[in-house]
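quick one before i forget lol
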Amino acid sequence: MTAKGTWDPLKELMTVQKRMNQLFESALARTDFGTQDEFDTWTPVCDAYETPEAVVLCLELPGLRQEMIDLRLEGDELVVSGERKMDQGAPGEHFHRVERSYGKFSRRFRVPSTVERGSVRASYRDGVLRVTLPNGEPRRDDSVRVTIQ
C-alpha cells in the first residue's frame, strides 16, 4: 500500500523483479563456472526456413572455431554439438558479470525423410553455422558426418 492507500501491483512486481535480479547476480558472482555441472550446458539459437530446393538452418555459435563444432545426421535428426570454454582470465582478475553462455551444447533437429543426405552442405562464417539440407529421395537410416566448409 502506498501513503494514499492505493495498491500498485506493477510497482510490487517491479520490486520483486529487482530483488530476484540482485539475488541471481550475487549467486552467479560466487560461482566457479568451470566445475558446476548445472552451468555447463547451453543451447544455441537457430533460425530455420524452407526454400523449394532445401531446408536451411542457421545457428548462432559465436566464439567457436570451426573444428570445435560437430555436425552429423543420425537417423531422422541433424545433430549439432560442441563446447565453448570460458576464458578464466589472468590471476587476480574477478568477473563482475557473466552473461554469455559457456560449456557443452547440443541441438537436435528432425529433418524430412526426403533430405538428400549425401548432398548436405554446411558453412561457418562470422559465428553463424549455416546448414543446407537439399530435397531428394526418401532417406536410409545410416549415420552421416557432415563436413563444415
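fyi The radius of gyration is 22 Å.
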